[in-house]
């Protein structure tokens, strides 16, 4: 479960219905965007998978999401992505990886090559931010991270060279940066301009991203090799999803919340 799940829940149908008419996006009857599990049944013409395959993916754009015992995902569609889950990853890891990792990777891609560059991640303890720290560090960047002091050790373990407390330390303390990655949508480019070098890149989760299965497969490979890992804050039962939404709304969530289903 991510902040995006909570935002979709909170969005009015007055907003979502026009989006559906324009882009084919449907208001969610069942929430939950990320999942992993085992293929139970195949639709007509599906040959890429077999019953019993371990899979993971998203239900983005679909009306019926992943907070359920079963999900139906179109294999060839703009709605949702699906790929096989390697044996080296648990179902919990598979469910926690897609949205945070794909969002972080696409936004870092907009910043250009990372090797040898200084990257600041603001909001580094969340689903997107924790993936951004790992991906930037694994691709040769020196990472400075902003998060709450209680999450300092966690973010350091993910690859950040410096960790600053967003409550008590100013952005200027990060020093000059080649890339500023706003993982929580709370910084403006203007606020970051004093620390961005000439020609530096500012990217934010407020920018649109799209899900691409080839990118998910690349990120799954990195995870299966142990080069990145989704940070799982806690595990809950399906009946506790409302409480998880309240935690997300409080802005105290770290990494990902995984919903377990018998």
Keywords for this entry:
Rossmann fold, alpha/beta, Quinone Oxidoreductase, Chain A, domain 1, 9 helices, 3-stranded antiparallel β-sheet, 5-stranded parallel β-sheet, 2 domains, 262 residues, single chain, 10 strands, 31% helix, globular
Number of domains: 2
The overall pLDDT average reads 90
E-strand count: 10
Q: What spatial form do the alpha-carbon principal axes imply?
A: globular
Order of H and E elements: HHEEEHHEHEHEEHEHEHE
Low-confidence segments, given as residue ranges, are none
Structural summary, described in words:
By secondary structure, the protein is an alpha/beta fold. It has 2 domains: about 5-95 and about 230-260, Alpha-Beta Complex (Quinone Oxidoreductase, Chain A, domain 1); about 100-205, Rossmann fold, CATH 3.40.50.720. It is built from 9 helices and 10 strands. The protein has helices spanning about 5-10, 15-25, 90-95, 100-110, 125-140, 150-155, 190, 215-225, 240-250; strands spanning about 35-40, 55-60, 80-85, 120, 140-145, 160-165, 175-180, 195-205, 230-235, 255-260. The strands form 3 sheets. The protein has a 5-stranded parallel β-sheet with strand order 6-5-4-7-8. Strands 1-2-3 form a 3-stranded antiparallel β-sheet. Strand 5 (about 140-145), helix 6 and strand 6 (about 160-165) form a beta-alpha-beta unit. Helix 4 packs across helix 5 (about 125-140) and helix 4 packs across helix 8. About 40% of the residues are buried. The model has no long low-confidence stretch (mean pLDDT about 90).
